[in-house]
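Action item from last meeting closed. Structure (158 res):
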């Protein structure tokens, strides 16, 4: 499986590709480095996104995360949350079905964070969790990068 790593403000990240689609984005530097056209374009897009996430639209390359039908449904909704905006686990549960807890579990299992923007989902009364290497600090950093104004309660969750 081809992988390509990049340096980011959150530390090293590694993209993985299978059958011409991005299947994961992981924290850390991958062991093997393969510059496929897709991985190179995705890396370059991420570099630009970290410079100014509001200048780019949604990730324009094919994604194929492994997961259950329910998880994939949640992840598809995440891709529809615009840059600089947020939704709550409860709001997603109302749209997709299920409970805020089941939505939270699906969001936490997102294998392609940032590109499937799970950082844009918040708890009703706080920031919620984040599966990135830096945890909630990474989530807050990503939200602030996108221009999201956090409430005092959310900012306190650091």
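Sequence:
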């Amino acid at each position: 499986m081809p992988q390509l790593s990049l340096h980011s403000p959150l530390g090293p990240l590694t993209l993985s590709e299978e059958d011409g689609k991005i299947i994961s984005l992981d924290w850390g530097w991958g062991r093997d480095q393969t510059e496929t056209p897709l991985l190179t374009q995705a890396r370059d897009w991420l570099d630009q996104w970290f410079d100014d996430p509001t200048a780019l639209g949604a990730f324009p390359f094919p994604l194929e995360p492994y997961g259950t039908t329910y998880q994939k449904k949640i992840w598809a909704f995440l891709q529809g949350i615009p840059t600089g905006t947020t939704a709550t686990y409860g709001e997603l549960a109302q749209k997709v079905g299920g409970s805020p807890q089941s939505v939270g579990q699906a969001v936490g299992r997102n294998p392609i964070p940032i590109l499937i923007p799970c950082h844009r989902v918040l708890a009703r009364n706080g920031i919620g969790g984040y599966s990135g290497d830096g945890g909630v600090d990474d989530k807050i950093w990503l939200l602030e990068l996108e221009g999201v104004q956090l409430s005092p309660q959310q900012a306190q969750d650091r």
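Note appended to the action item: The beta strands are 3-6, 13-18, 21-27, 87-88, 121-122.
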